[in-house]
Amino acid sequence: MLRILILFVITSTLQVESFPILKDLHERKDLEFVLIDLLNVLTRDYEVTCIAIICDEVYLNVFGGPLFKRTASVPYVMTVVEDYEDLLSPNFVTLESLRAARKEGCNVYVILLANGLQASRLLRFGDRYRILDTRAKYIMLHDFRLFRSELHYIWRRIVNIIFVKYHKKILGVSKSRPWFELSTVPFPNPIKGVFVPRRVDIWKNENFYYKRPLFADKTSNLNGEVLNVVYLDHVPSVVVVKNNGSNKIGGVEVEILHTLAEKMNFKPKPYQAINAELHKWGQKQPNGSFSGLLGEMVNGRADVALGNLQYTPYHLELTDLSIPYTSQCWTFLTPEALTDNSWKTLILPFKLYMWIAVLLVLLITGTIFYGLAKNHMNLQEYKKLRPIQTKDDEGIDAKPGLYLFGEIINSILYTYGMLLVVSLPRLPTGWSIRLLTGWYWLYCILLVVSYRASMTAILANPAPRVTIDTLRELVDSKVTCGGWGTQSKKFFQESLDENTQKIGDKFETIDDPMKAANKVAQGVYAYYANSDFLKYISVTRKNSLKDSKGNSTNTTDFAPKIDSQRNLHIMSDCVVNIPISIGFHKNSPLKPLADVYMWRVVEVGLVEKWLNDVMHPIHSLETNEDELKALMNLKKLYGAFIALAIGYTLSALCLAGELTHWHFIVKRDPSFDKYALHLYYRNKNKKDY
């Protein structure tokens, strides 16, 4: 590649004579010698992965001599632009060359353009679309057109730069020789009105005069400079406490900011964006500008942003984000169902299939008892028909104890009675029935003990809550989903998951989280945010309702509204786990060193400790009502009263049936005589027999 580059340079130098304005400079090759020394210093003192050269035809002959031979063998990516090309919107070839330099990881840029306006437009384009690596090291020609006020924001982002300014020899002085002044951006000192570069060194007589480091680290010590920090009140990242009209801020990100300020030696100046409660993080306005916290970052008014910024492509496009210091579970705040299952207390100890098994065993065992009883009764009839009877057979009851199971209805009822641990009125005869009765009693004891234990646990523990804990359950429910910002809605709509897309179809944006919590309590809404913030608004709302109910003088209208509202529940399944970072302004030079310190803070566990400190007051305010719910009350015994009511109802129906049969069937029988009922029933039994 180097051979092809040199051939291209040689063929291009033939046109240099058409530019006489810098002929004297080109003849002496002074600029070439300066670049050789600068590049050698860079390759010797710093790790250079690739060098990107951007020049025009005026300065093309600088690279036609011994420059590549006298510098270290590192990769070069060279871009030659036309003098009429608008670099704020470069052509395809130039753009692909710039992208190739960024892709190859070039960390040194040499920009030699005769037109300062063209160079400024290149810097603006590279910064806007991140085509140029603003944290690389730059070598550029000194040009006053680069220092205009509308370009001052560039020099807050590109700080590792050397401006090369040429000074001609002084006429009339025999020992005077041309020399170069090497200057840089006065970072971290802010640019106030007029850009005044700071001299670094002087190159003269093919040597550096002061021998100073050309690219010293300017971010390790910011010399107590004041950095504007925009923040947004959002638990647990930033917690705002109002005290006597002033705001005192705390939270995880505030603690991280204080650590960075101490290590990098700067003074944070926190402030809130205009109408922060309304705009919050901010959105793109119809005129193309941004509001809220992001608006402060895009417009360059803030250096650092605190506000639970998600590490997403949307935020990365507008700002620079530090390495994530934590990962948050983003889910929904959902209402708990008001369905009361206390009336099912009697059937809750066993599941459906268990009840089916118990019922089948009852019917099968009752039928077996009936079959054994009929078999024993037939055996007794056979003994009566024998011609010779023994003394032992005399006085034997025709159905000794078999009347319990002699009829199928009685057999089922007595079998059911044993299941309820009700003893039989008489022990049946027949060894087959007796053995089956003993083993069936063992089965009943085990079953009843299990039922009682489960029933005790149900009555002693709090009533089960009917909640929404999965995306599928949320999709099947009728509640509307929502959260802050159109970005959340786009996240659900653009998802590849079917359930998530259905959430996006019914997703509604809402700005006020407390208003959203009230809608959730009404059972018509589910609010999307991180789990820590959902816990905060849930606890805050619960305690505010308690205070308002306790302090209200007339609670006759307010109390029923509170009682009718549902409890708030945080869905256990996470929709997504999102990394959270601190924001810096776009292409900020502070980010690399800040990432190093933040990584150390995360490794030693300070972030986890600060998170626990922030959430501890919230957890302490959360009232634990499980013990109160575990107490026995009348509501938990609804099942017993329902069972009693069912018994009363069935008994009343049976009584009504018996009375109907008595008045419409028995009394209308021609042989009925109310004065001789025993004769009527004796004749009735003979007829049935």
UniProtKB/TrEMBL annotation:
GO molecular function: ligand-gated monoatomic ion channel activity
An annotated GO cellular component: plasma membrane
The keyword Zinc is assigned to this record: no
Keyword ATP-binding: no
Transmembrane region(s): 352-373, 401-425, 431-451, 637-659
Secretion signal span: 1-18
Residues annotated as domain Ionotropic glutamate receptor L-glutamate and glycine-binding: 236-299
Gene Ontology biological process terms in this record: detection of stimulus involved in sensory perception
Main location: membrane
Membrane topology (UniProt): Multi-pass membrane protein
Subcellular location: Cell membrane
Alphabetical UniProt keywords: Cell membrane, Glycoprotein, Ion channel, Ion transport, Ligand-gated ion channel, Membrane, Receptor, Signal, Transmembrane, Transmembrane helix, Transport
Record family assignment: Belongs to the glutamate-gated ion channel (TC 1.A.10.1) family.
The name this protein goes by in its record: Glutamate receptor ionotropic, delta-2
GN (gene name): LOC111352093
